[in-house]
Amino acid sequence: MSLASTNKQDTRCWHAELSLSYKKSRGRSVIARREHVGPLVTQKPFYPEGDEVCHTYLLHPPGGVVGGDQLTVNIDVQSDAHALVTTPASTKFYRCDDRHARQNQNLSVADNAILEWLPQDTILFNQAHVNTVTRIDLTSQANFAGWEIVCLGRPASGELFNDGYCRQAFEIWRAEKPLLIERVALTGGSELLNAKWGMAGYSVMGLMVVVSANKAMLELARSVETVNNGLGSVTLINDVLVCRCLANQGMETREYFTRVWQALRMEWIGRPAELPRIWNT
After folding, report:
1. Which of 27, 130, 199, 277 is the most exposed place for a label (fewest CB within 10 A)?
2. Which pLDDT band, with edges at 50, 70 and 90, does 61 fall under?
3. How large is the C-alpha radius of gyration of the chain?
């Protein structure tokens, strides 16, 4: 099913939108509504953990985002449903001309529902111009765990992030009150990228958040082996566990966050971690 769209758009650009709504039906978490416009779709859901957890893979067939493109993802997890959402590959923002690329991700979770938002990394090519916003809206009894990983340039290929910018916002709201508000403005070649008070010369930064956490989970997270040749930290703000990472490779950051997620999941929701199968391909 496609979303009706009457907006005029530059034919050189992709304006893609995907909306998913999950519900609990006869003991199974299912996609109750799926609508899309443009090249942003999903694979058939998987159930490696049984009917309780719906694993979903978001697909962007063009493989990359250029100036003028706009991607929007809307996810709604209704009461008692459980969705785990990931991507099969990195999201790539390519070099832009005078236009910038936009990415909006709107995630909402109802009481006694669970959303695990585990995308692979986002790669910003040199001269990319990007605005990205992720907003998570939770009710008072909702559960959320997720991460975002940003890679600046492609150092392994000799391409540094010397030019361009990324404005990134990450917000979590519960019962219409802010739990965590993050704002990051990255400019290619700026002092921030190398200063000790900034990224200290690392090319990858990651943020992981678990809502409905406790002190036992904080200790479990702190016991996890951190990133080789990188920096990791874990804090607990009320019931929000915040894990941060600076590293040289996106894969190292994802593997670190995955170890934290595996260590916490049983304490958090009473289930052992089941890695998305797509990560093995």
Report:
1. 27
2. confident
3. 18
Instruction: Using DSSP bridges, classify how beta strands 240-247 and 204-211 pair: parallel, antiparallel or unpaired.
Output: antiparallel
C-beta separation of 201 from 195 below 8 A? no
Strand segments, DSSP code E, in 141-262 are 143-152, 165-174, 177-187, 204-211, 231-237, 240-247
Residue position matching structure tokens 């694993």: 55
The helix (H) or strand (E) run that includes residue 22 is strand 15-25
- Hey, is 72 helix, strand or coil? strand
Q: Are 127 and 163 in contact (CB under 8 A)?
A: yes
The structure's pTM equals 0.93
Residue 47's pLDDT band (cuts 50, 70, 90): very high
CA-wise closest residue to 71 among 117, 134, 124, 145: 134
Measured CA angle at 28 (ends 26, 30), to 5 deg? 115
Cross-strand partners of 106? 74, 135
Phi, psi of 111 (to 5 degrees): -55, 135
| pLDDT tens figures, 139-184 | 999 999 999 999 999 988 888 899 999 999 999 999 999 999 999 9
Instruction: List C-alpha distances in Å: 37 to 16, 17, 40, 94, 187.
Output: 5, 5, 7, 22, 31
Query: Which element (helix H / strand E) includes 222?
Result: helix 215-222
Contacts of 239 (CB under 8 A, 6+ apart): 211, 212, 213, 214
Determine how β-strand 54-59 pairs with β-strand 82-86. Answer: parallel
138 forms bridges with which residues in the sheet?
109, 174
